[in-house]
Amino acid sequence: MSEFQLRGIPNLHSHAFQRAMAGMAEKRLHPTDSFWTWRETMYDMAQRFTPDDLYAVARLLYMEMLKAGYTTVCEFHYVHHDVDGSPYSPSTAMSDALIAAAESTGIALTLLPVLYMTSHLDGAPLLDKQKRFGHTLDTYLYDWELLSAKQSDTMRLGCAFHSLRAVPLEAMSFIVDELPRAAPLHIHIAEQLAEVDECLRLRGARPVDWLYDNFDVNDRWSLVHATHLTAGEISRVAVSGACVVICPTTEANLGDGVFPASEYIAAGGLWGIGSDSHISVSPVEELRWLEYAQRLTAHQRTVLASSSVESVADNLLSGIAASASTSTGYSESELATHVLELDSRAAPLIGASADDFTSRFVFSGNVPLVRNVRIGDRVVLADGRHALEEEILRDYSDVVSRL
Questions:
Q1: Assessment of whether the complete model's pTM goes beyond 0.85
Q2: At residue 2, does pLDDT exceed 80?
Q3: What CATH homologous superfamily does 5-400 map to?
């Protein structure tokens, strides 16, 4: 057994269906291509999925996550219904596909069914291409109760509000009050400058300030992206106990901007990482580029080390561990049973010591270093391979060739 063991890494933000379009949106469609033009490609892909398709793609994705070192995934799930908005039978069929994919691969799942009601901050109705995302409050709570009964040792249930533009104030308040206090709450917020400007114009406040003005935001909340923060907002989030979920590879791919991690972490804020659109399924790449973006803006090295922890890698790994329980809904004792064993035979770890193997894990390139993965009593990866690998790859290939 390798002496190089780490606690499993939580992936706090995932849209599983987007794994099927990774690398397919890299052609210029507009002279000022942006998140908003990319979104049209994403909508087109979202129209193609059936529950069986989602199962095959999610199973491939979750296997890839385990191989990379993710042991828990928060699935921010909004493709709920058929393409015309009519419910499947059962109405939770798409969520059930994700639960089954997680059970098959062995990854611990936090399912976050998304409430999505409007297309714009002004309350405009959903667009045709968004209809399969939509819920009323009654149908959302009905499905949530059905899914709640399916919770297990490796499945937790929370709630996601897609964004301020997708959920009116009254609806968000109602759901916050109705759901159990233990249910984690996640929301996309302040990802794009256009989103910030629109919120200022229509609501008279920046998105994060507006959220804090209207809700008791605390350690129950995870703020996904929160890319564009003022100094006052940084302080407000940090002292509240909420977790910011940073997705560096997706944020770079979409041209979102750079999260002010140095200032936020210095203020004591909780944070985690997510692979989001899955143009990369690698926690080390997320962590590496979180640090590198700070170096590029600060023009210095080792920005996210600290006065007490000089190793950037150690500081980053302790940071993501600190927020894991409240964001995922799993207890600290449960998360402690998620164990990665690194492959000491791999070239980057040959000659490594107990003091530097974490730095080599994060910063030594792209050679896969995870050898074995254990979640609770179940070994889900052995010697770098998943027991269902050939079947998962075959099913994924069949689906993607049709999408």
A1: yes
A2: no
A3: Metal-dependent hydrolases (3.20.20.140)
